[in-house]
Amino acid sequence: MTIDIARHWRRWALHAVVVLVYLFILTPVIFIGWISFFSNEIIAFPPDGYTLRWFSNVWEQRVFARGFVMSLQVAFISMLIGVSLGTLAAIAIVRYRFPGRDTLNMLLLSPLIVPGIVAGTALYIFYIQIDNYLEWRLQATLEGLVLAHVMLTIPWTVRLVSASLVGIDRSVEDAAMNLGANRWTTFRRVTFPMMRAGLVAAALFSFITSFENLELSLLLVGPGRTTLPIAILQYLEFKVDPTIAAVSLIQIVLIGVLMLITDRFVKLSRVV
Amino acid sequence: MSQVSLRRLAKRFGSFTAVDDVDLDVREGELVALLGPSGCGKTTTLRMIAGFIAASGGRILIGDQDVTDLPPYRRNTGMVFQGYALFPHMTVNQNVAFGLEMRKVPRAEIGPRVAEALRLVQLDHLGERMPRQLSGGQQQRVALARALVIRPEVFLLDEPLSNLDAKLRLTVRVEIRQLQQALGLTTVFVTHDQEEALTLADRLVVMSQGKVQQIGTPTELYERPANHFVADFIGRSNFLAGTVSAPGRFRSRGGLDIAFADDGAGPRGEGVLAIRPEKASLEAGTDAGTGANRFPGTVVFVTYLGAATEVRVRLASGEEVTVTRHNATPLDDPRHAAGDLAPGNPVTVVWPPAAGLLLAPPPA
Description:
With 272 residues, chain A is mainly α. Chain A contains eleven helices and no strands.
């Protein structure tokens, strides 16, 4: 009886902690969602009323729409390039033994360690030098931004794809070859489907990392060629009104929907 | 006609020799087991036959084709892996159909052949399941069906029973043997379990440190082991070290004068006499009696095994031997084995000269 009560209380305490943690994580999101409907231009609690005006303002402020399209382009292209390169690197690292393998692995993960603003500054200087010597303009161009973001997406891909590759039983590939599949067919019909979950997760995380990146991109954009997070920052510099909350909410919903769609094809909880 | 031939097959990894000049002929329809402790080279040999490991030397022939330099997908072997290695993202039907698709078998033919293969392993009702929805035993059968459906020239099994629980292992063992015989499959089977090998195989290849120690039928291996390793690895043996003092006479280190059936094949001088525990018998007391090989001693330890009782006896010479008595008589019968056996009891160990097998001493 006493044991039952103790167990009951323990479970109750556990639930309480879980709820608190969720609240801690979700409160800012909930507030952003709430504020985006406030009618007051200067944010005050409680609001005088509610309006959808800020959402139409997002549309009218062309910088947001342009930033959104720019971010979408950069994130999508960086994701494609980053996942392709990262997957090849992951295959090399997991499947082959060669000198410098550990170093390469560390190198590919290092963009996670270097602060974005530092990497951004370094790239800025590097791009200027390239422009000076090779007359190839990268600063404030789509290519320059994509190159920088590819660097950001590679660590995710290498990690996630490596993890899914390590989990593949090599004898399954042997079985395919034993049944008459050559190396390419074995990869296409057996290895690739088995690492699909890791690839999808890598693509999703790459996309999100690139889409919401601020620090790295800050110095690499130019007038009229700005990503959504930078557009938000620039708007914030001279105006604080619920438009920012509305933009953020749109971004959150977009990424949330993306994750839900992905989850329908690959159970993310099984990969990450 | 032999279906699989290994000619001085070798595999070296750097300075380590995993497989050392193995010669073997597997006849058509024969089941040959490669048996040995882990690291003896048996799995490496099997993987070389399948083509997953390139040979460092020697040739592999399947039928009358030299396949040594062919990749696995150009050799017509059907392999069952230790962990089954089913394709996790395909249904049972798709798993079994895979090999047929690779062989460009017409679509119309694939369905019936897959169904037939699954019927053979009694899984025809589970074709739409995913592998993870099946029990270990069922997955094993799918692996068998997948390997058999392509009608391989050679059937290769890599420890196929080691992931199954003890009861299931016995059933699947019998099923594999029945399938193999019904289909007349030339089979190479790798195992470290000697009981599995003795019960399944037509012939066994005992390997140790990359070398073939002996090739023979289960009876040959058990009754006439070629060397100390085989005598020790297959079943159990008492080993008495000593010297051959005269033709048919062996003097152990402890001073026993033992008669043995000397066919002249064994070594002269230093040697080891191997005696299977069940070929010796026990008599109560230490009466000298008459006849060959009667040695008095004291019971040291008794192990009751149900069907048999194992008795460890210290002989007057100081050497110890183990004798197995079959508990063939009822418990209340005065002749029942366990009756007069307790540590400290005086007994006489007796074995016929033919029970002693003279072998070269093991390498130091």
